[in-house]
Structure prediction request, 198 residues.
Amino acid sequence: MAAIQYTDRGTAVRVSPAGRALTEAVLAALDAPSILNTQPWRWRIDGDTAQLRADRSRQLATIDPDGRLLTLSCGAALHHVRVALAADGVAAEVAYLPDGDDPDLLATVHPAGAVERGAQAQRLRRAMSIRRTDRRPFADQDVPEAALDRLRAAAAARRRSAPGAPAGPGRRRRRRGPRGRRRARGPGVPGGARGLGP
Ligand SMILES: Cc1cc2nc3c(=O)[nH]c(=O)nc-3n(C[C@H](O)[C@H](O)[C@H](O)COP(=O)(O)O)c2cc1C
Prediction:
């Protein structure tokens, strides 16, 4: 099954600028990190609305029986869409779990007017294109309190905008720095991506 489904294939010329920005944002979100690179999301673009669905066929029964890692992965993809839209000057209206009868419909995203293309949004958008998972060992150092405070504040802000989102445990180790490898396009962790080296 394709990662993106368009309901209006062939009518692209009539798509609004916001709809086009949404499609581009969803395409950018295909590069989001996911548990063991399973990419367990399905996007459906219907006019000016994108639906984000969990793809249970990609859930890892052994290490992720309750689907938490799958949900986190989809959350990362949703965050990518929001960042890409913001960088494009488009505000996003996000509905979380909009259908109580359909728990695999995790969110819908709808462009909701213009926002300033701020420097922070541009910085995050660039980071989306170049980030990759750093698999080197953790350093044996505590994360500085100031950094933890920033993480807590960011998580609290996100929880306020996503009511009901569970709080996750924090990690107290700091990674040593980015690793210079490109990620693979398809699902599955590439052979060269193991945590070997310095
Ligand atoms: C919820 C979640 C859990 C992950 N857990 C691990 C992990 O335990 N070990 C690891 O090396 N990478 C982990 N990753 C990173 C993925 O393996 C990585 O995102 C994927 O292989 C794609 O590579 P990339 O991030 O470089 O694009 C995790 C990613 C997510 C979103």
Summary: The domain at 1-131 is CATH 3.40.109.10 (NADH Oxidase). The longest strand covers residues 105-114.
